[in-house]
Task: structure prediction
Amino acid sequence: MSEQGASLRRLERSIRRRLDARAALDRVVRSLPAVVQIVVAATAAYLLARGLLGHELPLVAVTVTIVSLGLARDATPRRVVETVIGMNIGIIVAALLVQVIGQGAWQIAVILALTLVVARAVSPSAPFAIAAGVQSMLVAVLPAPDGGVFARSLDGLIGGAVALLITALIPRFDLMRQRGEATALFSLLDQSIAGLHEALRAGDGAAAELALARSRRSQALIDDWGRALESARGVAAVSPWLRSRRAPLAEEVRLLAVADLTTRHVRAIARRVEVIVRDGQPRPLLAELLDSAAEVVRLLGRSRDDEAARYAARAVAAGLAARCAPTAVDGVGDQVVIVLLRPLAFDVLVHLGTPPDEARALLPPL
Result:
């Protein structure tokens, strides 16, 4: 037994090392666009500050460029501008104070405190204040350059300008990863609704609980997709290479909006189904309606790449809407499920181009 236990532990360590190595490689691969962008920008800022302004050690130009771009995925022009402004506020405030009170231990405390206060007054963003504080310390601690402490302000402006230019010329957002986020969301919704269908078909409480748990995981995917789209649209708005992506990204925003509404409807339906199936009774009519809802979600997920899927989704959603009559079932709980399905069908129809009045007319009267 001891030899078997030792073998299992060795196997477990081997698997863990492989998983750690795979995760490390994945991080590196995903960070490569950001690494390329930062290296190019920092080198350009250094060369410009040194060649254009004659600064021998343009440390601030390089640090402003690196920090404003960062390795975070959402290096949008707006985020870069906010970071650059924060860092230059730190440089300017520190440069002014150094002229008045000089450099030293107590001066560092005063400069840092005032910089943080000014930065917090200018922006509610905590990273904004920290960026300003870090740059103010470079000015307060390092000896003044040949051009005086305000020479670092010019370095900061050069670093910021280069960061913005590189953001536009070397975009880093990953459309494939963004596509994966949307695919993951619709796959999760499909699994959730399919689980609800099975729960209603067989009166299976465990299936309903699993479907409810899955539906609750959808919000994180919605949030990730939203952040990816915001980053993508921000870069596409300024990049000359991504003009052709602007219209598809705008359509993706509309799809995200209806997907968000759909996830909310699915969560509400899942909560209700989890309650009514506790009696163990099958509900074939509700199961059929949930099966149609699952088909709507599957087609909706494919609709951004497949025009035929849009028409198919609209037809299935119209059929679902026409069958959402609460009077078709007995019991208040069962009727509530149908009532909750109605806005799901309506929202999908409107998103797919059906006028709201026509979509509403498809729904049976309450």
